[in-house]
Write a structure and sequence with these properties.
With 574 residues, the protein is an alpha+beta fold. It contains twelve helices and 36 strands. Strand 22 and strand 23 form a beta hairpin. The longest helix has 18 residues.
Length: 574
């Protein structure tokens, strides 16, 4: 808003003021948002100001003999605007000096048809000229610079600036999103995924897609999938395969409106890809990109009162600014492995100097760049050892990861290694890490898992550790032959007595085992039987513990013989 008090103000959707300018020299006579919503223009007497969406000023121009600027209109691509003055004159302006940064590279749109690239590491400079059309949008990352003009797209490699890949566009580009192997262009026709050689890969589509209502906060891209927010209700997130454009699942339905979404960027299989969601209540959730067996289904609330969040480009880390604090989760996937380790694998720093509505501009390696409320950029450092541990694990160098943790002796590092080892089923490293964290109960359970002779039995116990009892039971029943006793005992341990009896009746085996354990349970607590099925079969089936122990022993011997007589995982986790 702007008015006769000579100030302009920015508010959030709840009506709370985010920014209030200092009093200007004259009355504010016009305000206009750019098409992408990232900037807005403010007009007053002989003055035109360009401001960021959070309120701070990019630039101010003083067109002479214009009088009060009574109206401002943008071009559809958001690169130019026109302002109508009270004197009858019209002023035309173009946006320049747009800057993008990645690693040691900086690209600046110095003129509408000229980009200057600087390599700080090699002290090299490049001039990229576009004689045909002005540059509409540009993005820098993953070793490439992608620049879109009104009619063409140019793809430059940081290794060779002289020969870009060029292809024609069908519409005006409004957004460019980069990932490791592909990039996405958004225009009025929809979203299109391209390779860095300029080849069209796919076109994600769904009924009700409104490209004009999508922006950098509601589009996410990684190597395997694309996430788009369905703006018909702003609660449904649709995910598509990057290579085919086919929808991967029914999508994720959130309970409130989503304002920002992002996909993890670290190299990993699609089953381990995670989606971070920031909703209108400023709550940050984490959910699997696609449902996977043996993993938690649904969304887990990571943090409340979050202003902004971003994934790390080079490792599986997530950072956010929440309630005047900078929070980094060194391995967010821990919530689907062992959420008790979440507090150990995260770090919080004071961020009161960031002000209102900060924004994470980038997160790479061990540095996160955050833009403050006044437009200044601030770099925040996090642990540099966590990316090294994650790299060791990806390369299966478990001994190197353990040695590094022992050298650093930091609890967050041990927590990350414990979660990675459990996820990667390397129980020797998990045992060492949990011992360093003095997690005695978890350590005992890992030792118990290592003693199980069969691969299916260990996999089921790990699924149970990750709070997925249904998947654990399914693993045991799908073994050949089925590990029926382990499946029944699993349900007994979880006090799912009806399910345990149902399995025994279905397979016509171990009915007396279930009844025996149920009888012991009731006698221990001094209770009477209340389940009709147990009363019925208790009258029909005799419980003889000698017979039960013999059957259990035979089944355990068969399991051990089938696995070659072994008793646990080797150092390689196989």
């Amino acid at each position: 808003t702007g008015g006769e008090d000579c100030t302009y103000k920015v508010f959030d959707p709840f009506g709370r003021q985010l920014y209030g300018s200092a009093p200007q020299a004259h009355v504010i006579t016009s305000i206009s948002w750019s098409p992408n919503g990232e900037t807005f223009a403010v007009g007053s007497f002989n003055s035109l100001r360009l401001c960021d969406k959070t309120g701070w000023s990019h630039a101010r121009e003083r067109p002479s003999e214009m009088g009060s600027l009574m109206g401002v209109a943008w071009t559809p691509d958001g690169t130019a605007l026109a302002a109508a003055g009270g004197s009858g004159a019209v002023a035309f302006a173009q946006l320049t000096e747009r800057k993008v940064e990645w690693s040691n590279y900086e690209a600046v749109l110095a003129e509408p048809r000229l980009i200057l690239v600087t390599d700080a590491a090699g002290d090299a400079y490049e001039r990229l000229e576009f004689p045909r059309d002005r540059v509409v949008e540009l993005a820098l990352g993953w070793g490439h610079l992608v620049a879109a003009t009104a009619t063409q797209c140019f793809i430059y490699s940081t290794l060779n600036w002289n020969t870009p890949h060029i292809f024609d566009l069908r519409g005006t580009t409004t957004l460019i999103v980069l990932a490791e192997t592909h990039f996405l262009l958004l225009d009025q026709n929809g979203a299109t995924v391209y390779s860095y050689e300029g080849r069209q890969v796919s076109q994600p589509r769904f009924p009700g897609l409104k490209p004009s209502m999508l922006n950098v906060s509601t589009v996410a891209l990684c190597s395997e999938c694309v996430a788009l927010l369905d703006r018909t209700d702003s609660k449904t997130i649709r995910l598509f395969d990057t290579l085919t454009g086919r929808q991967l699942s029914q999508g994720f339905q959130h309970k409130t409106e989503v304002v920002q979404l992002s996909l993890s960027q670290c190299a990993c299989p699609l089953s381990e890809r995670r989606l971070a969601i920031l909703d209108r209540n400023r709550d940050l959730y984490l959910t699997p990109a696609v449902p996977a067996p043996g993993a938690f289904k649904g969304a887990f609330k990571l943090q409340t009162q979050v202003d902004t969040a971003a994934w790390c480009e080079s490792s599986d880390m997530l950072c956010a600014v929440a309630d005047a604090r900078f929070v980094v989760w060194y391995y967010p996937n821990v919530v689907f492995v062992d959420r008790d380790l979440l507090s150990v694998t995260s770090e919080t720093k004071d961020a009161t100097d960031l002000g209102k509505a900060p924004q994470v501009l980038g997160f790479s390696g061990s540095r996160a760049t955050v833009r403050k409320a006044d437009g200044a950029s601030l770099t925040i450092a996090v642990s540099s050892y966590v990316p090294i541990v994650q790299r060791f694990v990806r390369e299966k160098k478990w001994d190197g990861a353990v040695r590094l943790c022992r050298f650093v002796k930091a609890p967050p590092l041990w927590g990350v290694l414990a979660a990675l080892a459990i996820q990667g089923r390397h129980l020797d490293s998990a045992e060492i890490a949990l011992a360093a964290l003095t997690e005695v109960e978890k350590l005992q359970f890992i030792v118990h898992i290592k003693k199980i002779p069969s691969e299916e039995g260990r996999s089921a116990e790990l699924a149970l550790y990750r709070r997925c009892p249904d998947e654990a039971e399914q693993i045991l029943l799908q073994a050949k032959p089925p590990l029926l006793y382990r499946a029944i005992k699993l349900n007994i341990r979880l006090f799912k007595w009806s399910r345990a009896l149902e399995l025994a009746i279905k397979h016509k085996k171990h009915v007396d085992t279930v009844l025996g354990y149920r009888k012991k349970y009731l006698e221990r607590f001094g209770k009477a039987e209340t389940l009709a099925k147990f009363t019925q079969y208790g009258a029909e089936v005799e419980v003889n513990w000698e017979t039960i122990k013999t059957k259990i022993g035979l089944e355990k011997d068969d399991e051990k013989a089938r696995s070659g007589g072994g008793g646990g995982l080797t150092t390689s986790g196989k």
